[in-house]
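Lab notebook: predicted structure, single chain.

Context: the supervisor wants predicted structures on file for every construct in the current expression panel, including those that have not yet been purified. This is the next one on the list. No modifications to the sequence; it matches the entry in the shared construct table.
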Amino acid sequence: MESIAENLAAIRQRIDAACLKCHRDPSTVRLIAVSKTKQAGQIREAFDAGQIDFGESYVQEFLEKKSDPLLENQPLCWHFIGHLQSNKVRSIIGAVSLIHGIDRLSTAEELSRRAVQHDMTADYLLEVNTSGESSKYGLKPEELLHQAPSFFKLPNCTLRGLMTIASPDPALARYEFRRLRQLLDELKGVAPDPSFLTELSMGMSQDFEAAIAEGATLVRVGTAIFGWR
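Prediction complete. Output recorded below exactly as produced.
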């Protein structure tokens, strides 16, 4: 059974190979180790192996890990990758570097309100339901451009790009990744400052190489690093 450090090395090699295959610089893709349900000791093991970015989905679990003695004084970069409800915004603002899972204007408005209240800024991604599955969160693709102006005008928070969770079918997933990239290009066309829109969070353990081929800048890998939950 491979160690977390060995698994990380293998994933990084696969990321490098995927980037080279589609003529991309590997430095343009960041690996987020999905650490939800994992213990602080496992996260520390990954950190000691050079991993910086970690993704959490459950607010209380995340806050407990962040304050764990093994992790609290370490320069980890936390991402909130789960569905975020408005009433949970107050608990994580200022504690994460990027929020991936905002899927409605009311949540972004609450993020903005809290950021203004605390005199800070917050970066976030909009989740788009590219698969159309009712079990998944996210804006419908056809809603994105219509709603975009309302997101752009919110103070103290910056929309940095888009996120999606693709279908399990590889052929469908490839199309959905491509669609998210196209949506980001369209979003740049209506943005007050398109230079802020740099991120595409897409691809997980089973499909991150296809996501990289379609332009992913953030890939979220858990099982292939930490094993089955």
